[in-house]
Amino acid sequence: MPRATPAPPPARPSAKPPEPKAAPAPVTLDDLFQRLREAEDDAEARGVAKLIDRRLERSGSGTADLLTERARQAMGANEIPLAAELMDRVTTLEPGWSEGWNRRALVFWHLSDKEGAIADLKRALVLEPRHYEAWAALARIYLSNEDKPHALDAFRRAIAIYPRMPKVQDAIDKLAPDVDGRDL
After folding, report:
1. Residue 114: what pLDDT?
2. Quick one: which of 179, 181, 105 has its CA closest to 143?
3. Residue 112: pLDDT band by 50, 70, 90 thresholds?
4. Of 4-8, 44-48, 74-78, the least confident
5. Is the separation of the CB atoms in 98 and 52 below 8 Å?
6. CB 154 within 8 A of CB 136
7. 42 CB contacts (<8 Å, ≥6 apart)?
C-alpha cells in the first residue's frame, strides 16, 4: 500500500503584514497649472482648465458661494444692480478670494464701469496671478479703450498660463504688428 505523502507544513506568517499602498498625493492647483501649460492638445487643455476653474470657483465660504450664485442668477435675469450689490457683499466677506473680484469685475463691465472692472481684475490678479480668465478680460477691456500695448501684454500673460486658450493667440497675432511693429 502506497504511503501518503505528508502535507507540506503550513506557511509561516510573515513577520510584518504588507504595508498598505500610500494614497496618491492630492493634485494641487500648482500641478493643474503645470499640466495646463504642458497640455498636448486642445481637448486636454480644456479639461484641465475646467478643473482649475472649479478650484477657483470655491471661495471656502458657503455664504459667499451662495451670494455668488445669486449674483449669477441676477446677471442672467439682467438685474445688474442687484448682482453688483451681491458681489460687493462677497468681496467684503471674502477679500482674499480672487474669483470674487473677477466676477465683480464682470458686473462692473455690464454696468459700463470700465475703471471699476479694471481695478477688480487687477485685485484678482494680485491674489492669483495665474488667473488666465482675468488676464483675458483685462486685455479685452484695454482693447475696448484702444489701449493696444496693455491689451497685448495682458493677452500674452494669459497665453503664457494657458497656451491653448481659445481665440487669444488670434488676438495676439492681430495686435502684435500694431504694437511691436512689422518686420521689414
Report:
1. 97
2. 179
3. very high
4. 4-8
5. no
6. yes
7. 164, 166
Domain 57-128: homologous superfamily in CATH: Tetratricopeptide repeat domain (1.25.40.10)
As a whole number, mean pLDDT of residues 107-129 equals 97
State the residue for C-alpha cell 446677471: 75
**Contact status, residue 128 vs residue 98, Cβ threshold 8 Å:** yes
Query: Could you identify the residue written with the cell 454696468?
Result: 111
Is 4's pLDDT higher than 70? no
Domain ranges for the chain, please list them.
Answer: 57-128, 130-184
Nearest residue to 159 (alpha-carbon basis) of 170, 146, 175, 174: 170
Q: List all residues 6 or more positions away from 148 whose beta carbon is below 8 Å from its beta carbon.
A: 142, 175, 178, 179
Greatest alpha-carbon span in the chain: 105
